[in-house]
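Note to self: keep these together.
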Amino acid sequence: MSKTIKIDPITRIEGHLAIEAVVDDGVVKEAKSAGTLFRGFEIILQDRDPRDANRLTQRICGVCPTSHATASALCIDDAFGLTDKIPDNAKLIRALVLGSNFLQSHILHFYHLAALDYVDAVGALGPLSPFVPRYEGDYRISGEANAELVNHYVRALDMRRKCQEMLSIFGGKMPHSVGIVPGGVTERPAEDKVTNFLWRLNEIRDFVDNVYITDVIAVAQTYDDYFGIGKGCGKVLTYGGFDLPAGRFFKAGVVSQDLKLEPFAGENITEDLKHSWYADSGSGLNPAEGQTEPQLGKKQAYSFIKSPRYKGEVFELGPLARMVSNYVQGDAKVKEMIDPLLAQFGAGPEALFSVLGRHAARALEAKLVADAMVDWLCALKPDKPIIVANEIPAEGVGAGLTEAPRGSLGHWMTIKDKKIERYQVITPTAWNASPKDGKGQPGAVEQALMGTKVKDRDNPFELVRIVRAFDPCLACSVHLLDAKKNALGVFKVV
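Structure:
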């Protein structure tokens, strides 16, 4: 007999996400991922000064505004014809600011969002907020090891603070920094700024090397069955990110299930709206021509998330995608990190497509970025320019494709009469947590849930562990309001 499990909202993620799973004989046969918030920023930006996008799109999310600052700046640079004119100092400082946000976000995800699925904080501290309410059971780490992980939960708060301080040295403040702007950056790489940045970075690197990665491995050793849970679609995609003077740090790529690489081309992205609360007239379009026209009550729709697709297929984005892409493309540093980890668990690259594979990829990526940031910092030249003069063109088209902590982020803009005619944003979670498309293909999170064995239907911890491994972020949204003040839905926090 089948039973439907609905968790609405999923807690310990950014924003509001509902999950519905149909369980038959203890196995998930069908799953739905529903974004229950409406994004209105594309509409808000219409008819504004194109430079406003750099400020307003950061308000999409208070956790990852730096990624939107980067994507919007790249988009405006492209539309203004500045892409090949950005000074090297500006590229390096943009990368350092974005890298600081990556480190903060990855530490946040493991310790303060996902770790409590495996670490028994209640057993160590008692039933205190924010550790309750929770799903109970399957806490396998005990004694001193569990207490140490709880201590690291607290220590990670301080590390995140130092990441934010580091970001603010060149970004001005956090959230919603003012350091990344069209044409370059606002802060010069003065010696005192470089020094203050470096000592914080070295402390964070020590934490990543000796605490974060060690803790992820400890959890993996205890929960090694989760290397076989939550595979998902098995295909990954990355736009590439961190624009440096010598090229992009993360290489763009599309990797199939058999780990074959294809070159990435932005024109192959489309958005399907079959099961989304948006007018079908915008379905199947590339985001450069995309539309955002809400249509509440649309038949067969169940989410305010659109369904981005690449060549009509479902792909997973995020740290796993970036690490797999660089691995397949022969990145020596990535291979030096991944191969020993896989050997330690007697697993092949396919094990990366799992709950623990995603956590491991995120931790290793934190080390990769943190170590690289030392080189970026040392390459700064205090006497060189940081910005190029620019003006608004009468007409223009731009795209800003970059990487956010949770995956590839894209901004697309059309300028007409020196104002924004069209602006479209596709966030990483739009790819990962998308609903089914017109061909009936479930999104990446939905596919990861399907086939999962649920031991206790009233305590489905397996499902939330899978979802949180993707680090979904739906904070890029605004609440849907009814002007007549009618209730549109009642949600129960579990």
